[in-house]
């Protein structure tokens, strides 16, 4: 199935707490396994356009922190949870099937 879906990896290669980045065109997408649920955000802080994948994922709160200035984003919706970021990051649909994890890139 292709319909704008991009293959990320087999589910066995992205264990709980792990993350990976895939590219769809010029768009870097951060995919994180949070306790067996997969989430995908654009790998770009909305505050300073820095890679979120370089930051720390907090499995207790479900947030990823940008290492540049400490902005944090909720994996569930991409919304910032603290300053200095005030704009959300793009969130992408994720699905899993027998082949693995997929993200849907909608322009």
UniProtKB/TrEMBL annotation:
Domain Rieske per the UniProt entry, residue ranges: 6-103
Entries under Pfam families matching the protein: Rieske
TM ranges: none
Entry-linked PROSITE patterns: RIESKE (PS51296)
Keywords of this entry: 2Fe-2S, Iron, Iron-sulfur, Metal-binding
Superkingdom field: Bacteria
Name of the protein in its database record: Non-heme iron oxygenase ferredoxin subunit
């Amino acid at each position: 199935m292709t319909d704008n879906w991009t293959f990320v990896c087999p589910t066995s290669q992205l264990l709980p707490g792990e993350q990976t980045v895939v590219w769809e065109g010029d768009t870097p997408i951060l995919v994180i396994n949070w306790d067996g649920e997969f989430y995908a955000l654009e790998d770009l802080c909305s505050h300073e356009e820095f890679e979120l994948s370089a930051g720390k994922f907090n499995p207790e709160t479900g947030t990823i922190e940008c290492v540049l200035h400490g902005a944090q984003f909720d994996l569930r919706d991409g919304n910032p949870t603290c300053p200095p970021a005030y704009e959300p990051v793009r969130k992408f649909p994720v699905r899993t099937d027998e082949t693995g994890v997929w993200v849907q890139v909608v322009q």
